[in-house]
Specification:
With about 240 residues, the chain is an alpha+beta fold. The protein is about 25% helix and about 30% strand. It contains 5 helices and 16 strands. The strands form 3 sheets. A 10-stranded mixed beta sheet has the order 15-6-13-10-11-8-7-14-5-16. A 4-stranded antiparallel beta sheet has the order 1-2-4-3. A two-stranded antiparallel sheet has the order 9-12.
Amino acid sequence: MSFPAIDPIGLDGLLVRFADTLSEPANRAALAFRRHVSDLHLPGLLETATSLGGVHLRFDPARLSHAALRSRVDAVLASRDWYGAPLPSDRRLWRIPTVYGGDHGPQLARAADLAEVSTRTAIEALSDARLRILTIGFAPGQPYVGQLDQRWDLPRQTDLATQVPPGALALAVRQFVLFPAESRTGWYHVGQTAFCCFRPDGDPVFPLQPGDEMQFPAISAAEYEALLHSPDGGATCAPID
């Protein structure tokens, strides 16, 4: 299959795919294309959302047909090389303090063993990594963050026995996931934050956005406990130059 590819989704959607597997260029293309299409303010286009390597466009079929939207999308896709397009200019860098290992990251040692590094090296590597939010999904506000070094291409666990609390940091397949709520998961629970990425009564409800970047610097268990009732769990956010 050649990419980009366009597929109809039901009566009111189009899916624009830039790849069938995750890659940096495909994710970059999806983020840049979504922003451009959103900024066009097309009459009848109701919503846009990115996946790891694609963009879903939802429209009002009473105001816009599949054919008309596809024609416009074809023209936009042909207008530039989206795989090399610049990322949106309003992205931010989040630094979210994280306690790794022990009771707060009970599967860190297992993940480090699979990556063939020591626990100390694992904490240093994961703490230093600066990564992009590739997409938001699965649960409200939940970011998929990557890509980590190849050594962290760990397969998901084969069951869902792992139960994680809100704010849990887990990893697999070269990505982090930061959980907004208590959940069962096949990902490795390596750390814990005091950050909430789904705020039903907040403004915004979802503080994180696809394209933002994240770091999870290591802190002690005592520092984590002190942050439990602090604004944003001690997280900082700054524009990316």
